Amino acid sequence: QVQLVEFGGGLVQAGGSLRLSCAASGLTVRIYPMGWYRQAPGKERELVAAITTDYSTNYADSVKGRFSISRDNAKNTVYLQMNSLKPEDTAVYYCRAQRTFANYWGQGTQVTVSS
Question: Quick one: pLDDT band at residue 41, thresholds 50, 70, 90?
Fold first, then answer.
């Protein structure tokens, strides 16, 4: 059974940092394109950052230069390093693993940035 478990969220002041982790079981992150998404209250879920199997990355314009996605194949975990956090980064953050005919989501972790 595939599970993606996110942790590392919390409450932080504006300008602070957090590192989110997405620990996978039942699949190998090395062979899956992985992504971090977020959903703020009243808004649609949006892509924040993604990493391909060959380590190519892409980011939403709103987080470029502040967030960094990475993958540790030995730990089967994907990370999202978030720096210079802003109140508008407040959302539930979700991890996703997606391939053809396979699409898995984690349960999400809350990130709250106070001004």
Answer: very high
